[in-house]
């Protein structure tokens, strides 16, 4: 007799076997909040100038030692769907401003933690989400009034350095003055007249050895490789750039050559040699003095290039080839043909140099023509240089933001405390249940000075009460002093600790939107996972990996 197995009831009956469903406050909402709280707690300790580093080993066993939230998030494979929403919000912040990712994660976590208390008190998730929406709108309205300084001219080195200091300080505390000046020099020197600033035009070249204070800016491009032939330097160079190997050309179709005696073989070889010599001679006649190839430069080609005194450089990355073309104003040629005068690039000086014991090829553009600048970073270990590169990257992105809008607000947690104070007053005037959520939003903003104090080992509650007292007296730019003793506070504007207005604007918007999105989830339906290995190329590809 066959046993009768009853079918599952409810939603499970319409889904495939193995699908999971979580619904209601306990199973869905509180679960999501708990995962997001854990995630934000992980990154809290990496916030601010005294933030601790995380050691992340990714799936390829590459080691990262950094306090840069964007890198940590990218290398951690976050599985939880609600935490993924936080990750997406921080990635949007990274794409929009290139800085402030940790701010988004911490604030989203603080908002959800505050929401949990309200939900346990009996408010519905919709009430909380509506209150948060009102508070966010109010915060975005108030934010422009907190402006305390503005970069009036993005070509003024002193102003730009002042604005970039804080972005660098959060990653490289102690080296901020030197690095901010370095990045300001690189950015200002290539700022175009009409078009917008492109962050890709500031390159970074990391060379092991010496110390960070030996880092410098080079107008043009620097490659960590040496020239192929014997010619190692050219002044006022004319550059031809090929994306193909510079070698004896093979035919497009397969062909067979039948050779019956030694004389025919010698003629065949001589024909190839003559063809190669003609090609190189044509280049020399066109005035080309430097050849850059994207592939192998053959021995025979090298011989003729040396004979006609042409410098040969091989660059394997197609991205670097494109940037080099931008630097010298050349056109990439896909096959070995002689370039026209319009396709030839001009470079003031191409030469081989040695930095430490690393040979480098430098394409230097003097004067105002340079469209690309390279920051040569020196450091004692690869990991340390990677971290400096992230600080430089943040500073370059901040410069791009400055070109769009030069307004700055006071840093060191002062703008958050002031916003918190204003929103709390606004909440008191609101009727209905939303006022509780608005007050919790104000409370969540106070997490930043507390985190800064915690990471510096200062008493966080004391710091917060000192700041609240100062702000109540009308000292709107007072923030936490990470260099002072105990619960010290300072005037952030006077000490030149500035945050970019745009960075704060987008961070507030993305963090609050992510928290509201997570609160509005009432069911999680997870389909059964497909078997088999993971598909390749799931993550975003770094263009420089090519």
- What is the CATH architecture term of the largest domain? Orthogonal Bundle
- Whole-number total of structural domains: 2
Average pLDDT reading: 81
Fourth-level CATH superfamily of the largest domain: GroEL-like equatorial domain
- The strand count comes to 18
Give me the oligomer status. Answer: single chain
The proportion of residues forming helix, as a percent range, comes to: 40-55%
A few lines on this structure:
By secondary structure, the chain is of the alpha+beta class. It has 16 helices and 18 strands.
Secondary-structure topology with pairs:
Blueprint: E1 20-23, H1 24-44, E2 54-57, E3 63-66, H2 69-75, H3 81-96, H4 101-121, H5 125-142, E4 147-150, H6 157-169, H7 176-189, E5 202-208, E6 216-223, E7 233-242, H8 262-285, E8 290-293, H9 299-307, E9 311-314, H10 318-328, E10 332-333, E11 345-355, E12 358-364, E13 373-379, H11 382-404, E14 407-410, H12 414-428, H13 434-445, H14 447-456, H15 460-472, E15 478-480, E16 489-491, E17 498-500, H16 501-519, E18 523-526
Parallel strand pairs: 5-13, 7-8, 7-10, 8-9
Antiparallel strand pairs: 1-18, 2-3, 4-14, 6-12, 6-13, 7-11, 11-12, 14-17, 15-16
Helix pairs in contact: 1-3, 1-4, 3-4, 3-16, 4-13, 4-16, 5-12, 5-13, 5-16, 6-7, 6-11, 7-11, 8-9, 12-13, 12-15, 14-15
